[in-house]
Amino acid sequence: MTPFKTTFRSLLFISAMPVFAFASIAEAATPEEFTLSVSLEKAARVSLGSVLKADPEGEAIARQLMEVLGKMTGQEWASASIEEADDTRGIVLAVAADFPELAAEASLDSVNPFGREDYLIRTSGDRLLVLGATPLGVRRGVADLLHRWGYRQFFPGKAWEIVPKLASLTLRANDVQRPAYAFRDMFTVNYLPGEEAAYEQWCAVNRMGSGFQLNTRHAYLAIYRRHEETFAKNLDYFASVDGVPQDAATQKKFKFNAASPGLIDLIVKDARTILSKENAEDSISMDPSDFGGWDNSGEAFKKIGSPSNQAVTMANAVAREAAAPLGKYVGMYAYYDHQFAPEIPVEPNIIVSFATRFLKPGQDLFELINAWKNKGVKHIGIRDYSSYWNWDLAMPGRALGGNLDYLKQSFERYHRIGARFYTSEFQSAWGAYGLGFYATSRLLWNPAEDVTAMVNDFLEKSFGPAAAPMGRFYSLLNGEDSVLARFTEPAKFYAPLLEALEAAKEDEAVTRRITELLAYVRYVELLGNLEKATQDKKPEALLALYDWLFRSSPFQMLPTKAIALRSKNAMHIMYPALSHPNPASLVKMQADAATRPVTLEELTGHASEAVAAVKSISVIPRLVSGTKSTNSPWIRNAAAFVFPLEAESTTTVTLTMRRFGFSGWPRYAIMDPSGGVATRGRLEADSSTVEFKNSVAGNYTLVIEPTPNLIKCQSDRTFFLEPSRDAAALEMVNFKGLLYGAVPGVVASEIVAGGQGANEKINAEIYASGKKVASGKDVSGDEPLVHMFSKSDNATEFHVRIGKPSTGSYEDQFLKIQGGPSFPVSISPEARVVFE
Predict the structure, then answer these.
(1) For residue 521, what is the enclosing H or E element?
(2) CA 785, chain centre distance (Å)
(3) From residue 220, how far is each of 82, 238, 300, 334 by CA, in Å?
C-alpha cells in the first residue's frame, strides 16, 4: 500500500508547522508528553473513532500511518489489528463527529467547505489524538504527525524519501492546524509512466491538495463542445470581432456573446446540470477561453462594454442563478484582456484568481486586485506560473517557482491582501526547482514559516555529512546566489556536487541523491552546448541532449515529456530550424537509452572535465570605457551591466523596471573584478538607484535576477551589456540601433541576430572591422541572420545594426555570440572590447 494515497487528483503540497492555533486550544494546560512504544503492546496501537471506523477511509488512513511507522521503528505495524478507540490509550484517529464537544472547542466544522482539512493534534499521557474535521483532515493530521517525527518526502521518487530510524517516538502537542490557502494546486499534464503517481504521493505526504474544489481554468471550449448542435443553429451566441461573427469551427480562441439572452440561458442551464449532480464539486469555472477574441463590434460590445464586463456578466448569471441556490461557487481568472476590474458589481460567490503574468504593460497586480475588490469580489485567488518549460527550459535561476526569496515574500503578501486560493502551472523540473516546489507546499500552509530553518532541515536530512557543500549548491540554484544563476557556468554547479560526493562516500542514500543532481547539471551543460553551438554543430548537440533526456529520465529530475515528447511546445517548437527525431525515432531512442543507464563514474567524469576546462580558459579581453552617458535597451529575462571602473571611484546608476507580471522587487548583486560578490541588494521601486563604491580598479558587473518584467539601466558613463552565460544571448525589447563587440580569434565564433520566434522580425546588418559582412531583411528567431568569424580572422571587432522589419511584429530582439566564449557588448562606439 502506498502511504497517504489521496483521492483527489487536483493537488498541491502542504506542511506541518503548528500555526493558526486557537486560544481555547493553545492556552490550555501544557499537554502531557506522549511516548510511543516500538512494540505492539496495547499502548502502541492505532485505533479509530467509531464514526471514522465505519468509513472505509478510516482503515486506509490507519494502515498508511502504520506502514510508515513500521519503516521508522522496524516493526511490522501493517499486520496489527485496527480497533475502535476506547478513548484512553495509543494513537487515536477520529473525525469531528467522534468527539463533538472537542471538535466544537477547536472549531472543527465538517460542513464548512473551506474547513475540511482542519485538524487537532493533542497528546495526553497514554493517548495521542489526531482529530480531523473530516477524513481528509485526519489524513492531513497524520502527514503532519509523521513530519514532526522526521519523516520526509522532499521530491518525488524513492531516493528522496527520508525515513528516520527511531527507538521510540515522543510528542508533546496541543494545536489546531488550518491551511492558510484553502486551495493549493500545482498542475501539469506532462508525465512519463509512473511520474504522476510519484507526484501524487509527494503531494499527499506534504499536505498538498485541498478539501475545497476550485474549478477556474478556461471553460468556453468545454461549454461549446457540450452543446455543439445548439451553437451551430445560433451563431449569434458568438462574439463579433472587427465586424465578423466568430465561429468555433474556425476560431480556436472564440468568445461568447454576453448580450444574447439565449446564450445566457444556455450557460446557466449547463452549469445547473453540472452542479446538481450527485457528488458535484464545489464550484464551476466560467473563465473565458485563452487570450483575446472579445466582442468589439457586436451587441455585447455595444450593450455591455469591456472584455471584463462581458466575462463578469456571464459569470454573474451562472453564479446568481445556478451556483448560489445550491451553495456553490463560480471560478474565473483576471487575466490578459479581462484582467481589469469590471464596471459592474461581481456576485459574492465568484472566486477571482489573478494571473501573475500577461499583465498589460505597467500594470500593478495589487492595484488590479484592489480594483476588483471594490467591485464586490469577496474571494481572491492567485493564478501563478511556477515553471513553464518554454520560458525557463528547466535551467537554473529562470523560474520563479524555484526562487526561495520570491516565494517567501509573495505568499505572505498575497495572504495579507486576502488571497486564500492558489493555482499554478508547473513542469516537473525537480532538479532545477525542487527545493522551491517543496517550499511552496509549506508556505501555502503557513506563509510565516521560517524558510532558512526549512532549507537547513532539507540539507541536513537529505545530505547529512555533505550538507555544507550542498548548501552552496542550493544557494546557487534556489537561494541567495541564484541571482547569478544565468551567469554561472555548469562547472560552478558541478564543483560542490563533487565535494559532496567525497563527503558522503560512505552513505549510499546520500550518494544516490547527489548522483541525480549531477545528472541534472549534465542536462544544464548539454542544453548550454546546444544554445551556444555554431549552426553546423547544433544537430549533433541536439541529438546528444535528446539522448541524455531519455537516459536520465528514471531520476525524475527533468520534465522529459514536456521537453522531448509533447506534440506542442516541446523542443521541436523551441528549435524549429533544426531537424528533430520523428515519433518513431523517439520511441527507438527511448528504448536504446533504457539499455544504457547513467552511471556515477560517467557523471563524475563529465563534472571533473567541466571544472578543469574552466580553470584552463585564458582568453580575457580588456574593456575600454568611454565618458558619454549611456541608456541601455530594455532587457528581458537576463539583465547584467558591466562597468570598467577606476580605483577609489563611485558611480551611481538608475535601474528602471517596466512591469509585465508580478515578481516582487528583484534582487541584484554586484560582482567585483575577481568574480566575487561585492554588494547585494534589492530594487525598491519601478525606478531605483544603485551605487558602486570600489577600492580596486577593474570590471564590476551589476546582475539583476531574472524577472518577467523589463529592466533598463542608465548611467552618466558608458558601460557594457553582458550576454547570459547559459545561452550567450542578449534579449532586448523594441531596440533600434547599434551594438558593438568583439570575438577572440582562438575559436570560430558566430554572430546571430533576429526577432524572437517565427513572427517577430528585424532588419539586421553585421559589420566586421567597419565592413559590412552580412545583412538580412525580416529575419526571425527561426531564420536569423548569421555570420561566422573564423580562427584566421584573429581578434575581430564587430557591430550589428538592428532596425524595424517591413513584415511581422517588432517587439523582442536577440543577439547571440555562438561557438566560443561570449564577451560584453556596448551601445557606444567609445566602449570597446579589446583582445591583446
Answers:
(1) helix 508-532
(2) 33
(3) 48, 11, 16, 15
Distance (Å, whole) CA 106 – CA 20: 11
Task: Answer for the pair 288, 255: CB distance below 8 angstroms, yes or no.
Answer: yes
Q: pLDDT (tens digit, 9 = 90+) per residue, 245-278?
A: 888 776 667 899 999 999 999 999 999 999 999 9
Q: What was the pLDDT predicted at 619? A: 75
What's CA 156's distance to the chain center, in Å?
16
**Could you tell me if 202 and 156 are in contact, meaning their C-beta atoms sit under 8 angstroms apart?**
yes
Phi, psi values for residue 114, rounded to 5°: -95, 5
Using CA atoms in the order 484, 485, 487, 491, what is the torsion angle rounded to 10 degrees? 120
pLDDT at 46 over 90: no
* Its pTM surpasses 0.90: yes
Within its chain, how far is the Cα of 407 from the centroid? Answer: 10
Does the structure show a pLDDT above 50 at 210?
A: yes
C-alpha cell at 527: 542544453
CA-to-CA distance for 56 and 70, rounded, in angstroms?
Answer: 22
Q: Is 302 helix (H, G, I), strand (E, B) or coil?
A: helix
- Of the candidates 474, 467, 511, the one whose C-alpha atom is nearest the C-alpha of residue 493 is 474
CA distance 542 to 527: 8
| Calpha distance 834→836 (Å, rounded) | 6
Q: What is the CA radius of gyration of the chain?
A: 29
In this predicted structure, what is the pLDDT of residue 407? 97
Give the whole-angstrom CA distance, residue 460 versus residue 467: 6
CB 822 within 8 A of CB 730: no
C-alpha to C-alpha distance for 330 and 315, rounded to whole angstroms? 7
CA distance 576 to 34: 62
Q: How far apart are CA 362 and CA 714, in angstroms?
A: 19
Spatial CA neighbour of 332 closest among 384, 365, 381, 395: 381
Report CA-CA distances (Å) from 586 to 115, 546, 583: 47, 9, 5
**Rounded-to-integer distance, Cα 240 and Cα 297, Å:** 6
Which tens digits make up the pLDDT trace of 521-553? 999 999 999 999 999 999 999 999 999 999 999
Q: How far is CA 292 from the centre of its chain?
A: 25
Amino acid at 628: K
What is the per-residue DSSP string for 543-612?
HHHHHHHHHHGGG--S-HIIIII-SSSSHHHHSTTS-PPPHHHHHHHHHHHHTS---HHHHHHHHHHHHH
Strands 350-355 and 687-694, how do they pair? Answer: unpaired
Query: Is the separation of the CB atoms in 210 and 184 below 8 Å?
Result: yes
Distance from C-alpha of 656 to C-alpha of 661, rounded to nearest angstrom: 15
**Tell me, what DSSP letter sits at residue 319?**
I
| Residue 617: pLDDT over 80 | no
Shortest CA distance to 43 belongs to which of 34, 30, 54, 52? 34
User: Which of 543, 567, 573, 571 lies closest to 558 in space, CA to CA?
Assistant: 571
Task: Find out whether 404 and 440 touch, Cβ atoms under 8 Å.
Answer: no
Angle, to 10 degrees, between the axis of helix 467-477 and the axis of helix 490-503?
160
User: How many C-beta atoms surround the C-beta of residue 171 within 10 A?
Assistant: 17
**Number of separate helices (H) and strands (E) present in the chain:** 24, 38
Residues in the chain: 836
DSSP string, 373-431: HTTT--EEEEEEES--HHHHTT-TT--GGG-HHHHHHHHHHHHHTTEEEEEEE----HH
Name the band, by pLDDT with cuts 50, 70 and 90, for residue 6.
very low
Q: Residue 506 burial by CB count (10 A; 0-12/13-18/19+): exposed, middle or buried?
A: exposed
Cβ-in-10-Å burial (0-12, 13-18, 19+) of 225 comes to: exposed
* DSSP string across 308-330: HHHHHHHHHHHIIIIIGGGT-EE
Pick the closest to residue 761 from 747, 731, 740, 781 (CA basis). 781
